[in-house]
Amino acid sequence: MYLGGARGVMAGLRAAAEFDEISEVYDATREPLEASVVDTVASTLREWGLTNLLEVGVGTGRVALPLLQRGLAITGIDASGRMLARARAKGVPRLVRGSAYDLPFAERAFDATLFVHVLHVLEDPARALREACRVARGGAVGLVRPRSSRERGGGRPHHPRALVVEQLRREGIVVSDRARGGPPERERQLIERFPPQRTVVVSESDVTEPLAKALEMFERRASRWTLHVPPEALARAVAAARAEVGNATYSYHRVLSLALWDRAPPEREATPSEPGVDAPLSNEPGGVGPAGS
Ligand SMILES: C[S@@+](CC[C@H](N)C(=O)[O-])C[C@H]1O[C@@H](n2cnc3c(N)ncnc32)[C@H](O)[C@@H]1O
Question: Counting atoms of ligand 1 from 1, which one is nearest the CA of 290?
Answer without folding.
Answer: 8
